[in-house]
Amino acid sequence: MNGTIPLSQENLQRLPDGVSRPEYDRKNICAGIVHVGVGGFHRSHEAYYTDELLRTGDFSQWGICGIGLRDGDRKIASVLEQQDYLYTLIIRHPDGRIENRVIGSIVDFMMGCDDPQAVIDRMASSETKIVSLTITEGGYNVDSTTGEFDFSNPDAQHDLAHPMQPKLVFGFITAALRKRRDQGLTAFTVQSCDNIQHNGNLTRKMVLEFARRQDPELADWIDANVKFPNAMVDRITPVTTQADIEYLKNEFGLDDAWPVTSEPFCQWVIEDDFVNGRPPWENVGAQFVPDVTPYEKMKLRLLNAGHSVLGILGSIHGHQTIDGSVSDELFAGYLRQFMDAEATPVLDAVEGIDLDKYKDTLLERFRNPNIKDSLSRICLESSSKLPVFLIPTIKDNLERGGSIRYATLVIAAWCLYCDRGVDRHGNELDIVDGMKASLNEAAAKTSDDPLSFLKIQSVFGDLASNERFVKTYTEMVGRLYQDSDVAQQMRNVMSNG
Ligand code: CS2
């Protein structure tokens, strides 16, 4: 289409019907929320809920200031700045219906690596009530062998030595909280929106351990004055593609350099534990509960683990997307069996939720043919995801004598995946993982030492010394290395239960 409309505040009025837009007065919005990690998920979830809230009335103290801490955030910074921080959320329903909605809740963006002081000041400003995070499972800087803050990370060392020029989010939060304390201001709430069990507790632990090393008195103040609510977050958000950008151009003449696509489903269950106020997100569908534990466990162990099951097995088999894998009956059946036989028996009851229905809904969501969620996104950083999503289920089942075969095949297949790096047709897999080299090195020794992959303690903990697990794993990895037809191994597992 000729003469496209570049997305900007000024051009909002020119957008055609079919694209809904923020009608609220964005000029007068204060950023009560400072958010670190403005990826697709933040933009389809917290920013979406907040936009929905801003559309319903005068909540002008609850805008969002996005923060990028690393060089890699430069692209989103410049796209958002060019578009007056606006972007389009394209919500794709399974029946083909599409909702297009310009989100206006982000009102500013700053780069921590360019001007750390400005970001510290922003977090420390009395306007800021919440610092929220989507920094990924791996971003919490946990030493996975000890579970403590990893001070061996050179960036952590740097932050200890240069408290006012931090690189890690923990350095920024600590510096900002120090400033608030010194100025006698109320603290802010630190709100994690990552897929981690007890994400608030973990954030608290990491912030406190870092702060204590730097300044024990400040750590005591943080301990007494800052809140870190746990939350379960959910909305499937695939990586934006060129086709999404073209779609907006062709259908609406809208030029948006970085829209986001998501499914219609979304859920946010939050512990109501804030120190300096919060938006009434419950007005727009979020749930506030006293204890989020059963909700997060259910989501991580069914949805996220289900994704990993399809992601690893499907990649080796040659599937490309989640909907592609579940349209294969073998994969859909295997996933359901994994959920029923291994994941569900170690879940706690969730009040008001029928787990069977929840699983049916998950499969429906995975089947959405208009969400082309790539397996490469799912498998991204598996070394940080599997210890949260899948391995705890194996450990729980080992303890209670439950089935482990479905999940163990995924671990064995992951070894093959890291070793060979190709699907069954010989096509190279797009593997992105901070531990890629060490995973590959350990996996490549499997023929000499079948347990070499399992010995990566930071990922598997002590699984390599569990006799029952080792027996099942060795058998499976042995078979897979003889014949990498993962579908055949899946059928074996299904017929042996
Ligand atoms: C996915 C999640 O990262 C993953 O492997 O399972 O991004 C998932 O799509 C979201 O948690 C859905 O809420």
Oligomer designation = single chain
Beta content: 5-15%
Distance between the termini: 55 Å
Which structural class fits the helix and strand makeup? alpha/beta
Bound molecules: D-mannonic acid
Classified by CATH, the class of the largest domain is Alpha Beta
Please provide a written account of the structure:
- Residues 291-478 form the Mannitol dehydrogenase C-terminal domain.
- Residues 32-282 form the Mannitol dehydrogenase N-terminal domain.
- This is Mannitol dehydrogenase family protein.
- Keywords: NAD, Oxidoreductase.
- It comes from Aporhodopirellula aestuarii.
- Helix content is 46%, strand content 12%.
- It has 497 residues and is of the alpha/beta class.
- The protein has helices at residues 40-44, 46-56, 74-82, 116-124, 154-161, 169-182, 199-214, 216-225, 242-252, 293-317, 322-326, 329-343, 355-367, 375-379, 382-389, 391-400, 405-420, 436-444, 457-460, 467-482, 486-496; strands at residues 5-6, 33-36, 64-68, 87-92, 98-103, 106-111, 130-133, 142-143, 148-149, 189-192, 231-234, 254-255, 260-262, 267-271, 287-289.
- The strands form five sheets. The chain has a five-stranded parallel β-sheet with strand order 6-3-2-7-10, sandwiched between helices. The chain has a three-stranded mixed β-sheet with strand order 5-4-13.
- Strand 8 (142-143) and strand 9 form a beta hairpin.
- Helix 4 (116-124) crosses helix 6.
- It folds into two domains: 5-289, Rossmann fold; 293-496, Orthogonal Bundle (N-(1-d-carboxylethyl)-l-norvaline Dehydrogenase, domain 2), CATH 1.10.1040.10.
- The protein starts with a strand and ends with a helix.
- Bound molecules: D-mannonic acid.
- Residues 195, 234-236, 304, 307, 378, 385 line the site of D-mannonic acid (CS2).
- Residues 195, 234-236, 304, 307, 378, 385 line the site of D-mannonic acid.
